[in-house]
Every structure is written in C-alpha cells, then in structure tokens.
Amino acid sequence: MAFIYIVSIKSADPFWRKPLEAGIQKTFGIETRFVTDWRIDLPKTYDSARGQYNSSGILLQLIEAPPADAVKILGVAQADLFIPILTFVFGEAQLDGIGSVVSLHRLNNKYYGLPENQMLQTERLVKEAIHELGHTFGLVHCTYPACVLNKSTYVEDIDQKSQEFCKECRQDLEIMLKGLRFGKTIR
Amino acid sequence: MRPSDIGILVVDDEASVRDALGKWFKFDGYRVDMAADANAALRKLQDNPWDIVFLDIKMPGMDGLELQRRIKQIDKNIITIMITAFASVDTSIQALKEGAFDYIVKPVDPDDMSHLIRNALEQRRLLSENIQLRRQIEEISFPDEIVGESPALKKVMEKVVTVAQTDSTVMVRGESGTGKELVARAIHSNSNRRYFPIITINCGAYTEGLLESELFGHEKGAYTGALYRRRGKLEMADKGTVFLDEIGNIGVKMQMDLLRVIETRQFTRLGGDKLIDVDFRIICATNKDLEAAVRDGSLREDLYYRLNVFSIVIPPLRERKSDIALLSRSFVNKYAQSMNKNVADLTPETLEMLMRYDWPGNVRELRNVIERAMVGARGNMIEVKDLSFPFTPVNGEDPGDQDSLEDMEKIHIKRILERTGGNIAQAAGILKISRLTLYNKIEKYQLKK
C-alpha cells in the first residue's frame, strides 16, 4: 500500500484536513496519510529582507527522507512562500518528482482585506494541492481555463478554475497513474 | 505553436534565480535550458535554436550587455530579456537600445512575468510571421499573370479549384514561363493550408548535397561550415505546402530520400538521428517529359506515381492567343503604376503584332516585352516602334506566308541558328534534335554558308 503524504506544517488539526484528503483521494485514487510531526526547519528558509519563506527550501526538507510507502508528498504551509525571481508563489512542486508544497497564506481572504472565509480558502487549497500534485505526475500547465492545471497568478484565477482536470490532462494523468500501479511503487 | 516548440534559455550566475526561473518555465511546458555564464550560454546558443534568452545584466566575466550583442550577431531575432537586481535605469536603457525586448527587476510579480512571456512570444511570433510573409511576397512573382478568358485557361483554373480543397499531391506541367508556380500558389491559397506557409524549392538550382541540406536541414557539424543547426525547408513547411519546382532535375539519391519522406512524413536532419514529423502537401512542377525519364531510368517509377496523383497541364501562350490582349493590358496597367507612367493601352497594330508571334518564352516573355516597351514608351499608347521584338519574322520569310511543312521547318531552323549565332549544339538543344540530325537538315535546306 502506498500513500500520498499530506504534511501539515505548523498546524496540528486544521479545518481543511478532511476536504483536502477527500479531494486528493477522489482525484488521484490514492489513499492519503496526514502527518503533523514532520521535521521542517522553517526559520532556515526565512528571508528577513523579504519577510517570506523560500518554498524551494521547504520542498527540499520535505523530500529529504521520504517514507518507503510515500508515492507523493504534499506540504501545506501557513507561511507566505517565494522563489528568488518571483514576489510570491502559491505553491511549488517537482516536475515528475515526489514533492510539492502549497501555501495557505494568500488563499486567505483576510490577506486581501476581506472577511475570512474558511470554506473558500479550503476550496482554493484543494485546487492548488491538486494542481501541484499534478506537476509531480509530470503534467505541465494547461491552457484550458477551467482545468485545475491552468496557471494561476492571482487568487481570482484559482476561483475561476475547477478542481477537475480537463479531458486531455485527465488522460495524461491516467497514463501516469497506470504506470505507477504497474510499477513497483504501489503494491 | 505548442509551448514545447519554444525554447527559453536562462543565463544567470546565481543558481537559485536560474533554477527558479527555469523551473517556472518548465511548468508551462517550454523547452528550457540554463547557463551559469556567458561562455556556457554561447555554447548552448550554438547547439540549439532558442526563441527567448533571459540574461542577468551583472555576471562575472562577460556581462549581460556584451552577451546580448553576441546573441544578436548570431540571430538578431532572438528575444532577449534582461534580469537585474536593481532598477539600474542606465544599464536597462542601454540594453533596450541595443535590442532587448524588456527587462525585469528581481523579484517579479508572477502575473507580470506571465504577461512578459506572453508579449515576448507574441513579438517572436510576429517577427517569424513577418519574415515568412516577406519571403512569400518576394517569392510571389507577378500574380496578375494568371489572366485570361480562353477556354484552355478556364479549364486550368477549374482544375485548381477542384484540387485545392483536397490534400492530393499535384503535378503542374507546362513549358517554361507559363506560370507553373503561380498555379501552385493558387492551389495553396485556396486550400485549407492557406494560413500556413508555402515553401518553394527550386530543385534545379542546387547540387544534390545542397538540395538535401536545403530540404532536410542539418545539425551543427554535419559538414564543414555547418556551424549551427539549421531547419530545412520541409520543417518550415509544416502544415503548409511544399512546392518542388523543376522536379525532373533531382538525382537518384534524392529521389529515394524524397520518396521516403512522402511515404512516412518523417525525416532526419543531415548529421542527426532524431526523427522529425512533418505535415505538408506537395505540389511539384516540371517542363520535362517525366514519362520519358521513367522509361530511360533517370526517374524512379514509384516516385513518379507518388507525385503524379493529379496533373494540371498549363497550355503554352501560343495555344491561348485570345488571352494575349487581356494579359498585355494587365501588364501595361501594372507597369504604368510601378513606373508612374501615363500609358493606358496598346495600339491595335501593336496588339496585332503581339498576336502574330508564337511566344516560345510564354507569359514571362510577353511580360518582359511589355516591360521593355513601357520603359521606352513616350505617348499614352504602346506603339509598334516601342516593341524591341527580338524575334520579329524576317521580311518574306514569315511562316504565315509559307505552305509546306518543309518550308516551315527551314525557316524555323534558320531562325534558331540565327538566335544561337550559329552554335550547332545550342540550336540542336533548343530544337530537341540530335546534332547529326541538325547537320543533315542544314545540308538539306542549304542553310550553311
């Protein structure tokens, strides 16, 4: 049995846990394992000049020693993430790799001066998690606006798209999943 | 164009920036590579074609500005975007003056980056389209030559319309100067491939090796002087039409290669091993007797059948003399505009003279005669004296005045000998008879002085 590990960074019992696990299981057909005790050294990834956390640094720690039954690992952080060339990122993943990370920071309406809306934030999280996990299956951005793999540079873009893959991306994903099932990773 | 067709090269000495930017583009499906300094970048520029290059302005050794100058020497159409840590206005303005598309100050908003790439690709697309269109315009020679109302020409145009909507290979046949390329272009521009290029390859203009390189392209180092990878014309014609002019002039090896491409729609560049898929329609043209070439073994029979799926024969001008007046007037209008001359028409005598001539050089010859006449014309009509007719029938020897076939033959041979200055080999070539036969006929008609 193999799992998609969901690593909650600095949050023991988050409100988004169940919808996220359900969304991932439904989309990928793979069981999830929720963990909160993963050793992540967040201060190590902090950039004081920017007041943000380097997502690549977090990703590296997530994939450092993956459990034997982990087919994919998804980190969920509260922190505001960046990569050196960009002002921020909603998430980051290894293309055709094992690890990915998403940030809740800019998915929260409060960040934009609006009243908090946990349901909307969770919806956005599920979409971004599926999006980043899609990359770990080797899928690249899709130009179809409703596809979950459509690139989002603003939070509004996330709200516009669905949490489903379009027909073509779904076909590509199924090929990758089939490869996994027949491979040695999932037994 | 698919993202995987677009190559982005990131040049930055800072690994974290380089990797982050490279990864960002990989997620969009682009072909991405990275270089840590200018020398590594130049090597990669020689190895592969790139559409967009991101350049850090400040790098140890050769800086971004100097690297940009080198890149523009290699290919001035590569889009360059400068990366800078500070809003250094002077350097950025200098970079823009020297041809940079834009510059970014780290860190960039993801949305701005997306817009930047979108605009850069649009710029690249427009540049390629512009080059392509220029090439097409240069290649479109006198489209107004397909003029006429004769039944013979109408039949040709009907065939063009019929075949244009199919994807069949077309063989356009006709004497030199009849407008075979124009017919090929008419087929292409009425077909579903009209929004893609039509690429012309004059098979007779290249040696076998050069034709191979021209058609299939080559990898860097495929032969001495192949400093860069070059796309072949077949690759450029993807989704469009390939017009193979003078198809009867290709060598045996090329025939084999061409046959393989037609059958598989795949080929490899010279010196390469990667199979490239292409989707194109073939239109070819010839003024040769291909059936005779098949019989004497100089043209492969299988290639002949592959190419001769649908045949269009363009009649020579002498067989559609009723079009001469219309054609002549259309050339007069065309040159009156381009030469800014107030010439409106041809006199009836001039037209009559044009009608009496047989036009061995066909429409091309007529066009040249009118062009020359337009240069010399002083009034608003082209008169007989404006024509610098090189082959005016000699007084008393007008073929129209003769009755027998022998008389006609004698006059014709005499005229050709005069044209070639008495060169027997050349005259025999034009008359399509052997030198021995020509000698016999000269003897027979006592044409020898």
The level of helicity of chain A is 25-40%
Mean pLDDT of chain B: 85
- Strand portion of chain A, in percent? 15-25%
Shape of chain B: elongated
Number of domains of chain A: 1
Helices and strands of chain A, in N-to-C order? EHEEEHEEEEHHH
Low-pLDDT parts of chain A are: none
Q: Which CATH class of the largest domain in chain B?
A: Alpha Beta
CATH-derived topology of the largest domain in chain B:
Rossmann fold
Number of helical runs of chain B? 18
CATH level-four homologous superfamily name of the largest domain in chain B: P-loop containing nucleotide triphosphate hydrolases
Total count of domains of chain B: 4
Q: Largest interface, counted with CB-CB under 8 A? A: A-B, 19 and 23 residues
**Average residue-wise pLDDT of chain A:** 93
Topology overview:
The complex is a heterodimer of chains A (187) and B (449).
Chain A: E1 3-9, H1 17-28, E2 32-35, E3 46-47, E4 52-54, H2 55-62, E5 70-77, E6 81-82, E7 91-93, E8 99-103, H3 118-136, H4 155-160, H5 167-182
Parallel strand pairs in A: 1-2, 1-5, 4-6, 5-8
Antiparallel strand pairs in A: 3-4, 7-8
Helix pairs in contact in A: 1-3
Chain B: E1 7-11, H1 15-26, E2 31-35, H2 38-47, E3 52-56, H3 64-74, E4 79-84, H4 89-97, E5 102-105, H5 110-139, H6 151-164, E6 170-173, H7 180-189, E7 198-202, H8 208-216, E8 217-218, E9 230-231, H9 233-236, E10 241-245, H10 252-264, E11 266-268, E12 275-277, E13 281-286, H11 290-295, H12 301-307, E14 310-313, H13 324-338, E15 345-346, H14 348-356, H15 362-376, E16 381-382, H16 405-419, H17 424-431, H18 435-444
Parallel strand pairs in B: 1-2, 1-3, 3-4, 4-5, 6-13, 6-14, 7-10, 10-13, 15-16
Antiparallel strand pairs in B: 8-9, 11-12
Helix pairs in contact in B: 2-3, 6-7, 13-15, 16-17, 17-18
In short:
The complex is a heterodimer of chains A (187) and B (449). Chain A has 5 helices and 8 strands; from the N terminus they run E-H-E-E-E-H-E-E-E-E-H-H-H.
